[in-house]
Amino acid sequence: MYGAERQQLLAQRARRDGRIDVTAAAAEFEVAPETIRRDLAALERQGLVRRVYGGAIPVERLDFEPGVSLRDQTNAGEKERIARAALDRVPSRGTVLFDAGTTTARLAGLLPADRELTVVTNSLPVANQLATRNNYNLHLLGGRIRGTTLATVESWALDVLRGLTIDVGFFGTNGFSAARGCTTPDPAESAVKAAMVRACRKRVLLADHSKYGDDQFSRFAELSEIDVLVTDEGLDEAALDELKQIEAEVVLA
Prior knowledge:
The chain is an alpha/beta fold and 253 residues long. The protein is built from ten helices and 15 strands. It has a seven-stranded parallel sheet with strand order 6-5-4-9-12-14-15, with helices on both faces. It has a three-stranded antiparallel sheet with strand order 1-3-2. Strands 10-11-13 form a three-stranded antiparallel sheet. It starts with a helix and ends with a strand. This is Lactose phosphotransferase system repressor.
């Protein structure tokens, strides 16, 4: 198969499936992963895809933000391992914050009954899981609810966060990288995330490997503002080498 033919098939696959995975494509076309990466670079120069960690996505999906149910199914095993690894970072007592996100929601569901915690969140799924737990003093931030992420945003949440000091915060993200920090598509949600980061004494980022290098529109934190990054072993050596340059502790679940 000629390179142009393979690239045409890759472009069609990206539009059909929403993503190209380098490893899977290399196995399918029986070529080296480096060949697929060169193909994707060529397609990116043509404006057909944007390369992300481990593959590429079609440009027509750059403004697409999947809903909670779809995101929760993506890399579910990795998210479960990350949540369990992050459980060690939850204090036995004190104040904690849970940012909206499918991995942070998994962590909230794992909280044991013997903790004495004041919990702050802007996530309806997190609040739903903890509302009936009598040992937790739960505070749900107000504001407009984004239907895509089921998170509260805008001034009501921001006004409250300005007056809070929280021991540990657990954060989700749509994308992260050593160069661009932690990013998300929506500026309103990004503003609340940034205010949450400022309100916390210690910040723990929960992000699976597929989000590395997938930089989104609005940055809410530099990686230098993160104390602990909990991710999974899907990161390759190049990504790990980049992350070694940041000050955060990196935990591989």
